[in-house]
Amino acid sequence: MKLLENKNVIITGASRGIGRGIALVFAQHGANVAFTYNSSAQPAEELAKELTALGVKAKAYQSDASDFAQAEQFVADVLNDFGTIDAVVNNAGITKDNLLMRMSEDDFNKVIQVNLNSVFNLTKAVLRPLLKQKSGSIINISSVVGVKGNAGQANYAASKAGAIGFSKSTALELGSRNIRCNVIAPGFIETEMTAKLDEKTVDGWRQAIPLKRGGQPEDVANACVFLASDMSAYITGQVINVDGGMLT
Ligand code: NAP
User: Fold this and answer.
1) Which among 192, 14, 187 has a CA at the least distance from the CA of 88?
2) Number of domains comprising the chain
3) What is the pLDDT of residues 102-143, one digit of tens each?
4) In 3D, which of 171, 235, 232, 237 has the Cα closest to residue 4?
5) Which pLDDT belongs to residue 34?
6) Is the pLDDT of residue 196 over 90?
7) CB of 125 closer than 8 Å to CB of 74
8) Ligand 1 touching residue 64 (CB < 6 A)
9) Pairing relation of β-strands 87-90 and 239-242?
10) Residue at 50 is within a domain
């Protein structure tokens, strides 16, 4: 069953990893996909072709999620190209890990700007069209680290916890307009980034997870399909952990 037929969705940071997985699964469910990247132009164009081959409309946009004006321009371009926006996935994110003793002000600010300001920027930019059509689903990708904290990731944890507070407030503010806002908190998801890590370390992490495996981008994408679709019409302000039971 295709759950997102004729829906237009926006995904930030879909040139790689989880965002790319979300774009592919959304397209398989019939969604038209407008997505951003920051610097990976070629992989983004290749993904746009792959999505189009699935029979949907798809387009890649270079847009720095941490920049307010670029988010506004991106939404204006999408409305021009696609007409309407039904769902938004704020996925773009970075890490700059370090122990607090060694974390620079710059590394703190940059992670907050890309991971948290980006959520504000795009939510603000889509607000007017969503209010006008009286519907919409906003999905913010946080992390189990935002729920629980993690040594060496104070900047990242703060940005991801901030996204949760922002989302709950948005859900309360916009519920009466039929605009929903939910969070997905992934655990350890195996992407190109984690493929570079030492296999023994990664296997240790897998064994510590109740389901005994790392997650795949598709695991996160499937939860996003549910939240973007009308199957979740009565769900807002929630955090769904997609973590193989890690936080249980
Ligand atoms: P990734 O493989 O590093 O991909 C990050 C994506 O975000 C890329 O497409 C990148 O575009 C884009 N991006 C980065 N900075 C951007 C900016 N300023 N503007 C626009 N796009 C930008 O990361 P991932 O593992 O897929 O993670 C995706 C999201 O899930 C992040 O929010 C991350 O915090 C969260 N998450 C990941 C895990 C995990 O285990 N992997 C766990 C929990 C949460 P370019 O290619 O152009 O740089």
Assistant:
1) 14
2) 1
3) 999 999 999 999 999 999 999 999 999 999 999 999 999 999
4) 232
5) 99
6) no
7) yes
8) yes
9) unpaired
10) yes
